[in-house]
Design a protein that fits this description.
Order of helices and strands: HEEEEEEEEE
Shape: globular
Radius of gyration: 15 Å
Strand content: 35-45%
Helix content: 10-25%
Number of strands: 9
Structural class: mainly beta
Amino acid sequence: MSDVRKSFVLALMMGLALSGIVGAFVLTLAAIPSGASAFTFTTIDVPGATFTIAIGINARSQIVGHYRDASGTEHGFLLDKSTFTTIDVPGATSTNAFGINARGQIVVITWTPAAPSMVL
């Protein structure tokens, strides 16, 4: 996927998240020939979540983001094929996953009672 298309997908997902739209989706552009108008939308909803935001995707189609549970706590997630894995950093009150590289290493931002921090 070209950098322009990646930027478009990220901007679209972030725009929807900031506008309060519940749920997340992936807009697949990689296989669309120039000039085509067909898109594939995939809904991403972590089971039991009140909202889900997908933020990062790698070449293996592993997706990371975050979701809020019924108690209001935010958790990071990894979606690999059809399996969701929750990401919670010990001691953090909130964990948000923001990126994943080709090796599957995930970047998260956590909030603790003291201050926010980044974890690789």
